[in-house]
Amino acid sequence: MAHRVDNEYDYLFKIVLIGDSGVGKSNILSRFTRNEFFLESKSTIGVEFATRTLQIDGKTIKAQIWDTAGQERYRAITSAYYRGAVGALLVYDITKRQTFDNVQRWLRELRDHADANIVVMMIGNKSDLNHLRSVPEEDGQAFSEKEGLSFLETSALEAINVEKAFQTVLSEIHQIVSKKALAAQESASTNGRSMQGTTINVAEAPTNTKGSCCSS
Amino acid sequence: MATGIRRSRSENVDHNKNGLLHRSDVTQGEHPLSLGKTSAWNQFFEYSEIMEQIDRDVKRTHPDMHFFCGDSSFAKSNQESLKNVLIIFAKLNAGIRYVQGMNEILAPLFFVFRNDPDDKNANFAEADSFFCFVELLSGFRDNFCQKLDNSPVGIQGTLSKLSQLVSKYDGQLQHHLEVTTEVNPQFYAFRWITLLLTQEFNFADTIHIWDTLLSDPDGPQETLLRICCAMLILVRKRLLAGDFTSNLKLLQNYPPTNISHLLYVANKLH
Q1: pLDDT score recorded for residue A85
Q2: Contacts 24+ apart (CB under 8 A), B64-67
Q3: Between the N and C ends of chain A, which has fewer C-beta atoms within 10 Å?
Q4: Which key words tag this protein in UniProt (chain A) (predicted)?
Q5: What are the residue ranges of helices labelled H in A35-136?
Q6: Cα–Cα distance between B27 and B25 in angstroms, integer?
Q7: What is the pTM of this model?
Q8: CB distance from A21 to chain B under 8 Å?
């Protein structure tokens, strides 16, 4: 039933998929949410949306994933989609150097439009095409270390590391959120005051109630 | 002096022979790394980027149809035609050039012309679809133009018009969608409008919708908005019962619909 209203989760985290056109964002999404892959899939216009609920550190987490169009023209439009996002997967294609060179521009895009505390993972996709590789894994590693991002190479086609990439990002977000919630509780109890005025930046999800950072 | 000219001529011949340009012949504007608008090199690099993008998108135009995709020479020649049209359009319209999604608008036009039962007509499918593509986009190209995004004629303006139309005919639905469940029309209708509904239905249904879209005396823009509005009204019960997630999923994956009925409902929104 498509119109069932479900609240069966502890946290709702919004994740955006960004990166140049043709790097495989939509296939990473369909691999993760439906375990599907299409060698030739339609180009994404505007934004596409999917969800998947999974268990992380004993909590039920609903990942709400927004897949965006890669072409420059769509960036101004898609910047609205960054609002409320707590995680981002920044994807490049290991067989196309240009898509790796553009990662810097995408980071700037995030800095301009997303929350400063957004958890970013860089992904080198199409690792099954190793014979066509033009970006060495070490380059990705070095760049991500320099920028303080987590990093993985994935293959949406062979279902390698896609699950792990999402798990890593979601778990990192969850840790930040629980730490903040814990700190908030502690300061509340030591000050003998209520939690009023405590800001949780990364996600607006409180610990003990059903939380969400968008709606529903 | 005569020997001087002869010498420089023979030098030129030498340069031509090994493909090198004389250093003094390269003006500042023609420097390979120049970012100037008139630089031939810069234009060359920009166009090769556009051509790569067109190539990538043409290959993923209706990947489920043999007409457009696959290894047959028929599909290959059709892809070449789509590419030619899009490249020429990009060259002639420097302000917009190629925007992802134009391939989806061109595809139905080319398909119809190429399948003309009369070979004499079918052979001119590329030229005919180019003409019609230019005509069709003359009414819609502002939606593709980033500079006009926030102007009344750009995509945001068109999306507001849709909102107003829904509000006029079904205020409860518009309020529930946009206020209660916070589903911004941009999240689903951006694609409906920029692609003229080509990604929402199967190909035969799209052609059916386009027959109305292109023949309505009110013009394609008004008709398109009415059809979009009717699409919302047809699933209003589910939308009114839904939350953000289920509503957005429903509208991004619009269910198979009786197209004649949809067009009937749209036509009543006059």
Answers
A1: 95
A2: B65/B203, B67/B111, B67/B114
A3: N
A4: GTP-binding, Lipoprotein, Membrane, Nucleotide-binding, Prenylation
A5: 75-78, 97-101, 103-113
A6: 6
A7: 0.83
A8: yes
A57, A174 Cβ separation under 8 angstroms: yes
Kindly state which CATH superfamily the domain B146-268 is placed in.
Ypt/Rab-GAP domain of gyp1p, domain 3 (1.10.472.80)
Question: In chain B, which residues have pLDDT < 70?
Answer: 1-30, 37
pLDDT score, position A151 = 98
What confidence tens digit (pLDDT) does each residue in B204-222 have?
A: 999 999 999 999 988 899 9
Q: Is B243 close to A77, i.e. CB distance below 8 A?
A: no
Interface of A with B in 185-214 (CB under 8 A): 214
CATH of range B41-138; options 1.10.8.270, 3.40.309.10, 3.40.190.10, 3.40.50.2020: 1.10.8.270
pLDDT digits (tens, 9 = 90+) for A112-146: 899 999 999 999 999 999 999 999 999 999 999 99
The per-residue pLDDT for A180 is 81
Q: Do A71 and B186 touch (CB under 8 A)?
A: no
> Do the domains at B41-138 and B146-268 have one common CATH topology?
no
Taking 70 as the threshold, does the pLDDT of residue A93 lie above it?
Answer: yes
Whether A2 and B249 lie within 8 Å, measured CB to CB:
yes
Whose structure tokens read 């007409």?
B67
Residue with token string 């279902």: A159
